[in-house]
Amino acid sequence: MRPAFRTACSAISLVIAALLVAPPVAAKTAQAPAKAAAPAAKDDAWLYRGSDVPRDREWTFGELPNGLRYAVRRNGVPPGQVSIRVRIDAGALYENDNEKGYAHLLEHMVFRQSKYLGDGEAIPAFQRLGATFGSDTNATTGPVSTTFKLDLPGATPQSLTESFRLLSGMMIAPTLSEANVRTDVPIVLAEKRDNAGPGERIAETTQQTLFAGQRLAERPVIGTTETLTAAHQASVRAFHARWYRPENAVIIVAGDADPAQMAGLIKTWFGSWKGTGKATPAPSFGDPVAPSGGAGGIGETRVIVEADVPRNLTYAVLRPWRKVDDTIAYNQGIMIDSLAQAIINRRLEARARGGGSYLTAQVQQDKISRSANATFVTVTPLAEDWKTALADVRGVLADAMASAPSQEEIDREVAEMNVAFESSMEQSRLQPGSRLADDIVAALDIRETVASPETVLSIFNSSKPLFTPAAVLQHTRDLFKGVVTRGVYVTPRSGEADSAAFRSALAAPVKADGKARLDTKPISFAGLPAIGAPGKVVVAAPTVVPEIEQVELSNGIKALLFPTGNEPGRLSVKVRFGAGYRAFQPGDAAYIQLGEMALVGSGVGTLGQEELDRISTGRKMGFDFDIDDTNFKFQADTRNADLADQLYLFAAKFAMPKWDANPVLRAKAASKLQYESMATSPQGVVQRDLAFLQHGRDPRFRTPTPQEMDAATPAGFRQVWEPILRDGPIEVQLFGDFDRDAAIAALERTFGALPRRPDLPRAVATATFPETRPSDQPIVLEHRGDASQAAAVVQWPTAGGMVQLQEGRQLEILSQLFSNRLLDRLREKLGEAYSPQVYNSWPRDRDTGGAIIALAQLQPKAVPIFFATADEIAHELVAAPPSADELARVTEPLKQQLARAATASAFFMGQLEGATDDPRRFSALGTLLPDMTRTTPAAMQALAAKYLTRGNSWRVAVIPAGQSLATQVPAGVAAGVRR
Length: 979
Known about the structure:
Blueprint: E1 2-3, H1 15-19, E2 60-63, E3 69-74, E4 82-88, H2 102-112, H3 122-128, E5 137-141, E6 146-152, H4 157-172, H5 178-195, H6 198-210, H7 225-229, H8 233-243, E7 249-255, H9 259-270, E8 297-305, E9 312-319, H10 328-353, E10 358-368, E11 372-381, H11 386-402, H12 407-426, H13 433-446, E12 450-451, H14 453-463, H15 469-479, E13 484-491, H16 499-507, E14 537-542, E15 549-553, E16 558-563, E17 571-577, H17 589-598, H18 609-615, E18 624-627, E19 632-638, H19 643-655, H20 661-678, H21 682-694, H22 706-711, H23 714-726, E20 730-736, H24 740-749, H25 762-765, E21 779-783, E22 790-797, H26 805-829, E23 837-841, E24 851-858, H27 863-879, H28 884-901, H29 905-911, H30 920-926, H31 928-933, H32 937-947, E25 954-960
Parallel strand pairs: 1-12, 3-7, 8-13, 16-20, 21-25
Antiparallel strand pairs: 2-3, 4-6, 4-7, 5-6, 9-11, 9-13, 10-11, 14-15, 15-16, 17-19, 17-20, 18-19, 22-24, 22-25, 23-24
Helix pairs in contact: 2-5, 4-9, 10-12, 10-15, 12-14, 17-20, 19-24, 26-27, 27-32
């Protein structure tokens, strides 16, 4: 059973809604197939056959005479959107040995060309309907299924009809020509190349080891280079004919439209679909096989040596997967399994926090691709002594299997589950149709049902008498019973371990270790010290957005309040403070990274990380932390009942910060393990170094080395972070479902009780960052990963700030025009990159630092092609305006994205950050939609001429160590020409 959620329209009537007056781009009127009468469908809730789980009545189920099944429902989140999923019951496990990768290749080819779409027309066609490629229009292939996804914004009867027409042609009659095979195979190989390297090798070897003897061990979704390059028209057509049949298809539609209309469109466009020949039964995926020593013994083990990769150990207790009757009793058992795992994982985390032999460890039970029901144990050792780390984790597990947990431990996890299920029910109206549709796809993958949040909570509440120590103990023991246990150990050092040693360590007797059992005595907020003497609200006034109020407390702290009843159960809190990166010194890089990882964990007052967990048990509370160039942020999603205590935790971090050393030491270990792994791929190097280069090599933005981390101390951590928590302005934002008067009182007791904060030093408040100078000569960086991988970046500096904000927003349109052209040339025509992209960055808090950035992963020899193509597109945008159609393919999706985003208060929270000190952000809200969606071809050309001129960019190439960067575009390859 997978939870689903009942939904309803939740639009917010704010200034943006009034601006949504332009009609969507007209779609070509679709004509139904000439012979496609609408056949009758059986009204049968086929998903619930064999289940006594109460049916979610929001869904209407049906089955056509040709065997195609469907599920439709009305859903108004976001308003106007309809989410369509076409799921084909065929993935990588359905491939023959000579077809590895065909399911995924076919996913690509379906988008290439089909009955109603010419070559390369799919992306533009859906963009004209307002759908953004990649987020609104996409597809995924997995081991057991392939799912095509369309989130159609601003849906009208015409655009819905057109969408179903196009999708029917894609599924039933794709153009699987030899030319299209030869075009799409290089794109798939580019995707495979992007994923190559240590991560892929580890994943494939792990899959081969844990599922040895099963089809899953031999079927990577991406396929093999050999089978893909050998693919041809006949072989691909045979795979499509075998599996793309109506009885293998399910269409799920959830959105802001009449369910009868959506069902009718399914019948009209898919009712005449007929399979070719006799249906082929699904292949057997196989079962985990017991080793020769008998059931439950240690089977295959493998040690993988990959330089620079952190140590990681995984073992799995495997059981055969069997289709279950998804009943209430079955789900009650799953809930007890979840309790057992939560108790174990909390103990493992407590052991790690206390300074153990491992950084992290976790237990998770999962059903894998209808191939195994498995319990996985993962461990990240802190050092070379992996045997001690494994033994310590196994000791905690042995204790969990030896004696029952206390009722207090159970009650703690039940409280956590209870708040999660209650929150889901409270927010059921807010669940988007896309998630509801995806829930059914996931349920189909494991052959189970979905349930409404009311049903889930009801089953949970009825199960509470079953949550006894004896029951949890029995389920814990069952989680670690299986037909075979297999494992993989990943290490950067050869000779550290071998398979025999690993097998012996897994089989060795272990002593139960109960030291990780936690104190379950509850902690109450009522027993905590007050922040200080409560302050008072001295100013409370509406803003130019009538629903949003600005208040100022007597100590100068300001807040924005947006209470709305349209988002039941959803409340976001954000605290913006200080100066961000401007607050640090050049030598603080290690402490900056440690702050991101450990500032929250170091505690408040008398509460360390464990106490913070205990005090929030059964509450919806959070404590996220983020660092921007010009400010810091605490953030949380909470609910009205917990708001006062959430505000207390945030305010206490300023008033009485705790400086526990253990989280800092743990963060140091994690940072050191992560650092070397960044060098194993071009994307890792980009992650490590790009921000440093974008900020003119400012040392504050440099990723600290392990040696710098070794030199960092808890005392130094406090010295850096204590003044940051003490100085500078604070802005609090409360947006969502809360009581205004109660929130004011809570603010007065918490943030109002803080002392008046000193102003930031002028040098800090006005500090700027250096920028990298334009140059045609690329900065060359090296990675130690796969020799076939490289990455390239081109950045055109722009500007920033509120004065030129309209221009910054218009640059979003220009960057997406650029992105569409880059994707078309590098991917669709040349096959050199799988997902090249261009994005726009425009800081509002400072007048510099903006940029248009183009980047891609590709082969080392293609780096000059990327630079040449990017330069060529930039030159074209300067030399000539885009066509009206090309422009509409960007502005219509942008308009729809904004329309959807503006239905949630969190959107306005992001737009209005800093507005208490910069009121221009309120007026800028009213011009957001026209700024980002209304322009002209001439305006785009002028903007390109201002920023995309030759000599105004700088570039980065990340190539394999030991290779030289090619300086010429290979002969015979020109940008925009198909190979």
